[in-house]
Amino acid sequence: MTFLFVVIAIVIIAVVALAITGKLAPFTGLENSGDHVPERNLAGEPTFDVTLRGYRMDEVDQKIQEMQGIIDALKADKLSG
């Protein structure tokens, strides 16, 4: 009987540890489920779709590329003017 309780305790500890680290959640494809194109909110800050594990990385990468283009254009204007 004690052996059964030890096994159950180990299983419970393992499930809790996996749940905390996020490895227990199955991949559901929610990261790529949004069709929403991020718009600028009223304060002018970019917004991103929120998914199960954070923000959609493709939206974040796209915004970083846009911002890098703006930075490059400003640097070019500063050097030429």
Low-confidence stretches: none
Helix/strand-derived category reads mainly alpha
Tell me how many strands there are.
2
| Beta fraction | under 5%
Describe this structure as you would to a colleague.
The chain is mostly helical. It has one domain (2-80). It is built from 2 helices and 2 strands; from the N terminus they run αββα. It has helices at 2-21, 57-80, and strands at residues 50-51, 54-55. Strands 1-2 form a two-stranded antiparallel sheet. The protein is rod-shaped and about 80 Å long.
Short description:
With 81 residues, the protein is mainly alpha-helical.
Q: What layout of secondary structure does this protein have?
A:
Layout: H1 2-21, E1 50-51, E2 54-55, H2 57-80
Antiparallel strand pairs: 1-2
Features:
single chain, 81 residues, two-stranded antiparallel sheet, 2 helices, 2 strands, rod-shaped
